[in-house]
Design goal:
Blueprint (H helix, E strand, L loop, with lengths): L2 H10 L9 H24 L5 H20 L18 H4 L6
Length: about 100
């Protein structure tokens, strides 16, 4: 395990579980593929050529439409995240430049 994500996980005491199966990675891979394939085309079709216009389009049109179409409601209402008692994540995530 290497890189900044791995370093942050180690600092927080979180064990990273890597997946090698396409089934486990499928949803995120499909989402990234959709974004990488579809977003540039949508910007081109809508004649958006600068960052400010692209950001407005993302915020006002693309993201709401994407979320409406692809969001899956959770089966449980409560959060799956567990708060770490006595650990300030912001402090733990401050990384050195080395």
């Amino acid at each position: 395990m290497s890189g900044q994500v791995a370093q942050a996980l180690r600092a927080l005491g979180i064990r990273q579980i890597l997946t090698r199966s396409p089934q486990a990675r499928g949803r995120s891979e499909r989402a990234f593929g959709t974004l990488q394939g579809r977003l540039p085309q949508e910007l081109r079709v809508n004649q958006i050529a600068d960052y400010d216009a692209a950001n407005r389009y993302l915020e006002q049109v693309f993201i709401p439409d994407f979320n409406r179409r692809f969001t899956v409601k959770p089966t449980q209402k409560e959060s799956a995240f567990v708060k770490l008692a006595g650990l300030e994540c912001r402090e733990q995530l401050k990384m050195s430049a080395s």
